[in-house]
Amino acid sequence: MSNSETTATPGTNRWYLSSAPIIRALVHLCVPMAAAMIVGAVYNVINSGFIGSLHDNTLLAAVTLGAPVLGLVMAVGGVFGVGGGALISRLLGAAENEPAKAAEIKHVSSFAVWGSVATGAVFGALGLFLLDPVVSLLGADADAASATKSFVGVMFAFVPVLAAAFCLEQLVRAEGAARQVMIGLIASTIGNVVFDVIFILGLHWGVAGAALAMGLSNVGVVVYFAVWLTRHSEHMSLAPKWFTLSPTVLKPVFGVGIGELLQSSFLILTSLVLNNLAAAYGDGALGAMGVAVRIAQVPEFLLMGVTLGVLPLLAYSYGKGDRNRLSSAVRVSAMTVGTIALLFSVTVFLFRDQVVSAFVTDRSALSIGVTILTAQLVAMIANGFAGLITSLFQATGRAVAATVMSVTQGVLFIPVVLLGNLWFGLSGIIWSLTVTEGFVLVVGLGMWVLSRRAIERGLADGSPERADEVLEQV
């Protein structure tokens, strides 16, 4: 590829990464991602409605208890997808100065996809083999054990598919193709709802039907993203022949991806602790917690659409050595996160009673759900800014800082929730995540200040003669 070929045509995905005005680039990258995330969050609420229509608190509790399995999928897919996607975007940016770097992208994409499938297969098989101990570990009591086993068992069977879907989503985003990601995720959500109607309302398969619907819809996601990359990506390849275990691929992919793994692992751990503590207050409290969390995910996922959507732009600008573009992207993204967080937290808070009552009819569970929703909205604001800082660290290959951000939440949450339960009971459990998110944001801001000089040096090294050092940086 020649230098002239690195000049992107206006309106193309590459142009949005390389030279489009920042606001246009953010709209292109973040709006489709936010739309896809918000549709996914709305689906979670609808799914709770399908389960809730069966009027059985144990089924809602089973879905809540099974949430850590989705965290497992994110852990597996995120190691390869987030790490691989960030590296691909940096390589694309560096290719503007040194075109030969684009040749490495085939190795990165093949390693990411097949690595996620193989690792997902191992994790899924282990989960099925240890299904009974896992259900007990998730905190299911005698009443919810059977439903939880059905839900989790089906989820484990689809871990390779779900991990591959999550990984492929990150790879498509790495090229700036946010619109294609939106199409894939929204189509998956629509398919999921159709399968829910068939399996839950039609065939009465309960939570097993909900898990099966999610698994089958993600088969479609894998096919769609794989076909799109094969037909439209100039540099990526999913062919096994490009698979490699070269340190120049493994080091940067795992350097960023391990932070994603630790974050997801701690999410699993915190969910286990939270579920086991909340279970002591009855299935009503546990079910209300699951509903409130899903409602709060609507604005929270919108923020994630921004913080995840901007990551390829940050990585591309860093790999290219474009200091001004990187700074502008961070600044405008932060303003967007603040505006969205304020707008949605106020709106949802004002109508919290009406929103929660649409899914919970029990009066005591309704009161608990409203309190949890309020705590979640406060945590959302801190989480939005912390997510943007984490994306910056991932985009610039700052593996240690990204890992610290990932670990801090889990390390802090355990003592906070245990002490909260001891001192304040259920209220302490509910507000523990809010307190933890606030601490994580403070830690992130501190590390951002400490990392600014290192990021500046990386940008300075983005010249052609130092491109190797930048791309191999962890």
In a nutshell, what does this entry contain?
The protein is mainly alpha-helical and 474 residues long. Helix content is 82%, strand content 0%. The chain starts with 12 loop residues before the first helix and ends with a helix.
SSE layout:
Elements: H1 13-18, H2 22-52, H3 57-65, H4 67-94, H5 105-129, H6 131-137, H7 145-157, H8 159-174, H9 178-202, H10 206-232, H11 247-279, H12 283-309, H13 311-320, H14 323-350, H15 352-357, H16 363-395, H17 399-424, H18 426-460, H19 467-471
Key words describing this protein structure:
474 residues, mainly alpha, globular, disordered C terminus
Q: Calculate the mean pLDDT score and round it.
A: 79
Helix content: over 70%
Largest sheet, if any? none
Can you count the helices?
A: 19
Radius of gyration, taken over Cα atoms and rounded to an integer in Å: 22 Å
Specify the overall morphology: globular
Tally the beta strands: 0
SSE order in H/E notation?
HHHHHHHHHHHHHHHHHHH
Query: What oligomerization state is this entry in?
Result: single chain
| Intertermini distance | 26 Å
Low-pLDDT stretches: 1-6, 463-474
**Strand residue content:** under 5%
Number of domains: 1
Summarize the structure in words.
The chain is mainly alpha-helical. It has one domain. It is 82% helix and 0% strand. The chain has helices spanning 13-18, 22-52, 57-65, 67-94, 105-129, 131-137, 145-157, 159-174, 178-202, 206-232, 247-279, 283-309, 311-320, 323-350, 352-357, 363-395, 399-424, 426-460, 467-471. Helix 8 packs parallel to helix 10.
